[in-house]
Specification:
The structure is a single chain. The protein is of the alpha/beta class and 235 residues long. Strands 6, 7, 8, 9, 10, 11 and 12 form a seven-stranded parallel β-sheet that branches. It has a five-stranded mixed β-sheet with strand order 1-3-4-5-2. The radius of gyration is 20 Å and the shape is elongated. Helix 2 packs across helix 3. The chain is 31% helix and 28% strand. Bound molecules: S-adenosylmethionine (SAM).
């Protein structure tokens, strides 16, 4: 895959200007010169062949070529609502969810959540870096911090699952899912969901998924489920 760069500006003409960390990387790490060919995308689908037209002090002007309608999205919407883990584990989780094709990540506030969620700009930067690497041309969406009651009241359609150690094996849940139906998965904090939170999902039609006999860390449970649904019909 050729070197990929992200444009914060929508690409809708024959030129586009890269600035910020993308321009910095080209100017000061790659020591790029006019004429260098690369691929640019703006996160709204498709990618473009481009060539550096001019290097300025802190920006790079690109001559934009043909749009390639390349989509690397899943054929259904996959939303992960996660009580995010601490520190660097947030970055790791966001990168891997992006690589696996998760459509939307919802930072989840539950009764036992303790972690401070990093700023949306920082989380989005992790999404962009992972998208550059894995070839995704649409950015995984990062929702605002959402509390448990709001999640249940907004997710009313699709296959909804809560990961819970006492849940049923995943194979039984899948048989109840129609093809390409949207999927919502909720993953709890280190201290787990409270009994009240678990009980409230039953009335709201969420299924309880068990992932085996061992207790997994937040990001392991999230990635195991994302990987399962993202690749189930692809390998
Ligand atoms: N003591 C907590 C409990 O019993 O729920 C452990 C919480 S675990 C560190 C964090 C989250 O990962 C859980 O709330 C659950 O959503 C998910 N999880 C971890 N292990 C799991 C398993 N074996 N089956 C299903 N979900 C699991």
């Amino acid at each position: 895959m050729p070197d990929r760069y992200f444009s914060t500006r929508p690409i809708d003409g024959a030129t586009v200007t890269l600035d910020g960390s993308e321009a910095h990387h080209l100017l000061h790490v790659m020591r790029a010169k006019p004429g260098l060919e690369l691929t640019v995308f703006d996160g709204h689908g498709g990618e473009y062949a481009a060539e550096i037209a001019e290097c300025k002090r802190s920006t790079v002007e690109l001559a934009v070529g043909k749009r390639e309608e390349i989509e690397r999205e899943l054929p259904f919407e996959l939303t992960l609502a996660v009580a995010l883990p601490k520190g660097d584990r947030q970055r790791w989780l966001i990168e891997k969810c992006t690589e696996l094709g998760v459509t939307r990540l919802v930072p989840l506030q539950t009764a036992r959540s303790v972690s401070k969620v990093e700023k949306k700009e920082k989380l989005t930067r992790y999404v962009i870096e992972a998208s550059k690497q894995c070839g995704r041309n649409r950015l995984m969406k990062i929702a605002a911090l959402t509390d448990w009651t709001a999640l249940l009241s907004t997710c009313t359609m699709g296959t909804r699952m809560i990961a819970h150690p006492q849940g049923e094996p995943i194979a039984r849940v899948e048989t109840r899912r129609t093809e390409n139906e949207a999927i919502y998965i909720a993953i709890g904090p280190e201290g787990g969901f409270t009994d009240e939170e678990v009980a409230s999902t039953i009335e709201s039609g969420w299924q309880h998924i068990g992932l085996g006999e061992r207790i997994l860390r937040i990001e392991t449970a999230a990635l195991a489920l994302a990987a399962h649904f993202a690749i189930e019909r692809r390998i």
